[in-house]
Amino acid sequence: MTHATTPHDALDPHDHADVHFDDGIPHVSAREYLNGFVLSVVLTAIPFGLVMTKTISNPTLAAVVILLFAAAQIVVHMVYFLHMNTKSEGGWNLLALVFTAVLVIIVLSGSLWVMHHLNTNMMPGQHEMQDMPASTPRNTP
After folding, report:
1. Structural domains of the chain, count
2. What are the contacts of 108-116 at 24+ separation with CB within 8 A?
3. pLDDT at 1 > cutoff 70
4. Is the pLDDT of residue 53 over 90?
5. Are both 76 and 100 inside the same structural domain?
6. Which of 8, 56, 69, 128 could bond to 124 as cystine, CB 3.0-4.6 Å?
7. Per the domain annotation, does 12 fall within a domain?
8. How far is the CA of 34 from the CAs of 3, 25, 30, 73, 120, in angstroms?
9. Rounded to whole angstroms, how far apart are CA atoms 53 and 25?
């Protein structure tokens, strides 16, 4: 007797065979989610500890270290929770991510450039403030 191979039989809930569908949806285990969670907690706790204990005395260096940990945490979230890789959705997810990153870089760098030039060209310098005539108080009757 042969086993029927109808679509209904392939989805039989009593069939204990491992059925893997190639539907493009990543099938991950709780262990992978736990790994991502632990990495996220570690990548949050380390910068927090560095700031609270004042391990890095230079504020610029501290900001750079925090930004590096933030970038690493973004990658962890994209890989472990958003399941983004080069194969998901035929590569379109990665292409959309690259496009978004380019737009964010253009907007941020353009905004910083405009603010820098506004600050340089619009704010009076210290030497200009000293050369301004002193205002005389008004006589009020």
Report:
1. 2
2. none
3. no
4. yes
5. no
6. 128
7. no
8. 40, 19, 6, 14, 49
9. 43
Does residue 76 sit in the same domain as residue 103? Answer: no
- The answer to the question of residue 112 being in a domain is yes
Domain of residue 61: give its range.
27-83
Task: Tell me the whole-structure pTM to 2 decimals.
Answer: 0.57
Asked whether residue 5 carries a pLDDT value surpassing 60, the answer given is: no
**Of 98, 102, 68, the residue nearest 84 (C-alpha):** 98
69-118 tens-digit pLDDT: 999 999 999 888 888 877 777 778 888 889 999 999 999 999 999 999 98
Cα dihedral 8, 10, 12, 13 sign: negative
Residue 128 falls within a domain, yes or no?
Answer: no
Average pLDDT, the chain: 80
68 and 40, same structural domain? Answer: yes
Q: Which ranges constitute the DSSP H helices of 21-91?
A: 30-52, 59-76
The answer to whether residue 8 sits within a structural domain is no
- Chain centre distance of CA 101: 10
